[in-house]
Write a structure and sequence with these properties.
By secondary structure, the protein is an alpha/beta fold. It has 14 helices and ten strands.
């Protein structure tokens, strides 16, 4: 259960399903947000509004979500009632041995119906570096987490919880990227020049058009990805009209190729970071996302091969040039193997489904 509101959750769901099927499981991805209908659209608009007000989501995250205050409990209850109904109808027709929740909403919905399906095991895969209170639910057999700090965060609310640390999941194609020379040839990027990939998540957050222009003026080749943000894509294409070093993409399945072509990936903290690390590219992180985004940013900095900058276009260009001067040559191949991920995931599964 990934939650369609987050592409990162979808990515994790695809990676888990692919590995489960390789291990002989039959899987179905139940998108708990999409079948909830138009009633969730205002909620998405509310999230955008909250994020647009400086400091507001930080306050909500750290004062309510992180601690599990009354506001968080009310939000959890409202979503859980709606989702649990649909999930119960689905599981009555399609019994499952295992449910993997990859969002707080999914964890809450599965926990709400768990007593009805006593033989079904429940795993929560938390993709945040520090899970807030709504990730932690009753009737969970195992928590999978992506940072050492996440285990005590879970056990703060469930001291007896079983927790297993895994690397963040990525789709299989990131384990087999093309060589940089081949990727650049396919994209028309100069072989000897310096190239950066610019992406603000699937929703294209931040002033990416202005950042792309600033990077191009610094004589960098820029591969700019707008994601699902059609307005941003139009602005990027307008900027590219006067800056031939800028190439623009909408939502694309060529991300492994784009990362392989780049010397540096400029992005906000999220699923893109582990994809870039798997391909072997360092990160310049945009401090864009409040709340859990700042936890995730700190985690990426602790992992190394990363720097941070503001969203100011001049700052981004200056930081990118300085970071490019001191980073190591790009990796010749992927830094992680699919087999290693599959082995770790399989061992985690065996903790609850021998």
């Amino acid at each position: 259960m990934p939650g369609s509101i987050s592409t990162g959750h979808q990515t994790a769901a695809i990676a888990c399903a692919t590995t489960l099927e390789a291990l002989g499981w039959r899987t179905h991805t139940f998108d708990e947000m999409r079948p909830s209908g138009p009633g969730l659209r205002p909620a998405s608009a509310t999230v955008r509004t909250v994020l647009a007000i400086p400091g507001l989501y930080d306050g909500i995250h750290y004062a309510a979500l992180r601690t599990g205050g009354r506001l968080a409990a009310r939000a959890d209850s409202a979503i859980r009632l709606r989702l649990a109904r649909r999930l119960r109808a689905y599981l009555d027709q399609n019994p499952a041995e295992l449910a993997i929740s990859i969002s707080p909403a999914g964890a809450s919905a599965v926990s709400a119906v768990a007593a009805r399906y006593p033989s079904m095991r429940h795993i929560v895969f938390c993709t945040d570096a520090s899970p807030h209170r709504l990730w932690i639910q009753p009737h969970v057999d195992l928590y999978l987490v992506i940072s050492a700090a996440a285990e005590p965060s879970v056990q703060r609310f469930q001291p007896q919880a079983r927790v297993c640390l895994l690397p963040p999941p990525v789709r299989a194609e990131f384990y087999r990227p093309p060589a940089q020379r081949s990727a650049r040839a396919g994209l028309g990027v100069p072989e000897q020049g310096r190239c950066v990939l610019l992406i603000g998540g699937s929703r294209g957050r931040g002033p990416l058009a202005e950042i792309a222009d600033s990077l191009a003026r610094a004589e960098l080749t820029v591969l700019a990805v707008a994601g699902f943000n059609a307005r941003l894509e139009r602005r990027l294409r307008a900027a590219a009209g006067s800056r031939p070093g800028v190439q623009v993409f909408g939502f694309t399945d060529r991300m492994p190729e784009l990362m392989a072509a780049a010397d540096l990936v400029i992005t906000s903290p999220g699923a893109t970071c582990m994809e870039a690390r798997t391909v072997g590219r360092p990160l310049l992180l945009l401090d864009l996302i409040q709340g859990h985004g700042r936890d995730n940013l700190q985690h990426e900095l602790e992992l190394g091969d990363a720097a941070v900058t503001s969203k100011n276009p001049t700052d981004v260009a200056r930081s990118a040039l300085a970071f490019l001067d001191r980073i190591k040559p790009v990796a010749a191949g992927p830094t992680r193997s699919l087999a290693d991920w599959e082995d770790q995931f399989r061992m985690a599964l065996e903790m609850v489904v021998p």
